[in-house]
Amino acid sequence: MSVDYEEIAIEAARAGGRVLARHFREGSLRVETKGRHDFVTEVDRRAEAAVLDVLRTRCPDHAVLAEEGFPQAAEAPWRWVVDPLDGTTNFIHGVPTFCVSVALEGPDGLAAAAIHDPVHAETFHAHAEGGARLDGTPIRVREVDDLHVALLATGFPFREVSRLPGYLRTFERFVRTSSGLRRAGSAALDLAFTACGRYDGFWEMGLSRWDIAAGTLLVREAGGIVTDLVGGPDPLPSGDILAAGPGLHGTMLAVTREGRD
Fold it and tell me: For residue 25, which phi and psi values (nearest 5 degrees)?
């Protein structure tokens, strides 16, 4: 890339992360309800402003799709997809599992990404065909082909309870056949952890584009496979996502296909 969009994504994600870290330490929040089980705080907006300040300065001609301020951004050749606080419910309750997620979509798809965890001071980052890294060190998905030894991550479809029966069928299958399941409350971090081998696979349904755009590129650049729950190559339009290493993805896909409503 003639412009180092990966570095810009890192800069923007860390700028948002500094806002989150400061307010998390202070512990004082005003919380608003956007919808059922959907919250926003003044910290979301402040973190988003910090991210957008970097993006507008470095890439003034690019569009932005952001959860809080620009949910209806028009399609554009280059567009940043931003979640300034993925894991808002955790943040509200003082649970130290949340992050900033920043991705760039270009004419050929996802071009760059960064996910910053301000609590642990970790930044996961990637650019298309350039590999994935954690603070500059290359990362790879774990080479696992046996579901029985795999540690999986998921998220509950609390905003789409009508899909709960299908999800629970899948959940039960994985409970019975994997070595364990985790539900941490941040899809972006779940994908980052899958990219670096902390998790072996991740699935969830009904997410937003800003929840999974950066993580999708990270997992792919780390050697993993990312699809929707029935094997479609692009999970971003539906928000239904399955991510795992090549040895495990097919096994997980057989389960998610059966459980999908």
Answer: -65, -40
7 alpha-carbon distance from chain centroid: 18
More confident residue, 67 or 94: 94
Query: Average pLDDT in the 218-226 region?
Result: 98
CATH number of the domain where residue 234 is located: 3.40.190.80
Q: What gap in Å lies between CA 210 and CA 17, rounded to an integer? A: 16
Enter the pTM of the model.
0.93
Phi/psi for 150 (5° steps) reads -90, 140
Residue type, 86: D
* Domain final residue, candidates 138, 167, 192: 138
CA nearest to 66, candidates 44, 87, 88: 44
Cα 55 from Cα 225, distance rounded (Å): 29
For the ranges 35-44, 53-62, 151-160, the maximum mean pLDDT occurs at 53-62
Burial of 163 (0-12, 13-18, 19+ CB in 10 A): middle
Q: Which domain holds residue 230?
A: 147-259
Structure tokens at 80: 């940043």
Cβ–Cβ under 8 Å, residues 239 and 83? no
Instruction: List C-alpha distances in Å: 54 to 25, 71, 128, 168.
Output: 23, 19, 21, 41
- By the 10 Å C-beta count (0-12 exposed, 13-18 middle, 19+ buried), 114 is classed as buried
Q: Is 73 exposed, middle or buried (0-12, 13-18, 19+ CB in 10 A)?
A: middle
In this structure, are strands 151-154 and 122-127 parallel, antiparallel, or unpaired?
Answer: unpaired
